[in-house]
Amino acid sequence: MYDAILVPVDPAESDFADRALEKIVKFVKQYGAVLRLVSVISPIQGFVTEALDADYDARIAADAREELERISAKTGLSEEQVSVSVCSGAIYHEVLEEAAVYNADLIILASHSPSFASYLLDSNAAKIVRHPECSVLVVRD
User: Fold this and answer.
1) Helix (H) or strand (E) holding 113
2) CATH fold for domain 4-140
3) What is the pLDDT of residue 4?
4) Angle between helices 56-74 and 14-31 (to 10 degrees)
5) Which of 1, 11, 40, 43 has its CA 20 to 30 A from that of 85?
């Protein structure tokens, strides 16, 4: 039913992704699917970048990739079954773009239980749920 599963991961909350990982791996194994972990680096405003090192963006991307590789290793899946991707831009747009490029037929989002603030603010997760070409599963902690 599912061949390619995409899982967005926030490197700043990787411990949260770790808790959802067991459920995600069950889906991958159940359907014989491949898994892509993706992290999106949000662009930094121009005036802030002047105070940063020239290699700041590259370091942040490398750190994100390293964290995704750490999570990938914890899945117990083979290298043929799991891959990682790091991109830069608007989070929901990049996740949807990655889903299209990867031909994902399922996006799994690890999400906190909703709070009052999430009803007032339009979160990236809400946009990802509303706009993809494929199915979306929200896994709660």
Assistant:
1) none
2) Rossmann fold (3.40.50)
3) 97
4) 50
5) 1
* pTM for the whole structure: 0.86
Angle, alpha carbons 20-24-30 (nearest 5°): 150
User: How many angstroms separate the CA atoms of 97 and 138, rounded?
Assistant: 19
pLDDT of residue 136: 92
Burial class (CB in 10 A: 0-12, 13-18, 19+), 16: middle
- How far, in Å, CA of 6 to CA of 11, rounded? 15
Determine the Cα–Cα distance for residues 96 and 23; give it in Å rounded to an integer: 22
State phi, psi for 3 to the nearest 5 degrees.
-105, -35
64 CB burial (10 A radius; 0-12, 13-18, 19+)? buried
> At residue 51, does pLDDT exceed 90?
no
Instruction: Delimit the domains of the chain by residue range.
Output: 4-140
N residues, the chain: 141
Task: Tell me how many helices (H) and strands (E) the chain has.
Answer: 6, 5
Angle at 127 between CA 125 and CA 131, to 5 degrees: 125
